[in-house]
Design a protein that fits this description.
Blueprint: E1 6-10, H1 22-31, H2 39-51, H3 57-72, H4 77-90, H5 97-106, E2 110-119, H6 120-130, E3 134-138, E4 142-143, E5 146-147
Helix pairs in contact: 2-3, 4-6
Length: 149
């Protein structure tokens, strides 16, 4: 029997997670020594430019991804991925209840994917946490298990 499923697509930030996960995750990575303390003022500077309407959202988002990518340079992919999974486990309560309750029901008739500008570590962590089918996201380059920056 060939059963076709529909597809359901969800973003992470402010769609299934009650805030922008990028900022608390960056702080978590700083606290765990993965990113240097200098990373946070760079992130805050971009956010301030956006909040003061000095630059567009797309420019801010791209700049934040660049900062994140630069902070990852030379870091082990598996170690960072593990920390991001730990971050989402620690903040699991920030996922909206509607999504948590909807996933098991929706999985019966839909393949569920994450579509996000967040990185592959974020998307993979959420995919695994909820047993989703896949994701489309920003991919930071990894060579031999290490981020290239």
């Amino acid at each position: 029997m060939n059963t076709k499923k529909s597809i359901a697509l969800f973003d992470i930030d402010k769609t299934i997670y009650n805030q922008h996960s990028f900022f608390p995750a960056a702080k978590f990575l700083i606290e765990n020594g993965t990113f240097t303390a200098e990373t946070w003022p760079r992130i805050e500077s971009e956010l301030e430019k956006y909040n003061n309407k000095l630059q567009e959202y797309s420019v801010t988002a791209n700049n934040l991804l660049k900062i994140f990518g630069e902070a990852l340079k030379g870091k082990n992919f598996d170690e960072v991925s593990g920390l991001v999974k730990e971050f989402f486990e620690d903040t699991k309560g920030n996922f909206y209840k509607y999504f948590v309750d909807l996933v098991p029901v929706l999985k019966q008739t839909h393949d569920i994917y994450i579509v996000t500008t967040n990185s592959q570590m974020f998307a993979e962590a959420v995919k695994e946490m909820f047993g989703l089918d896949g994701y489309l996201c920003t991919n930071f380059e990894v060579v031999d298990g290490v981020f290239t920056g």
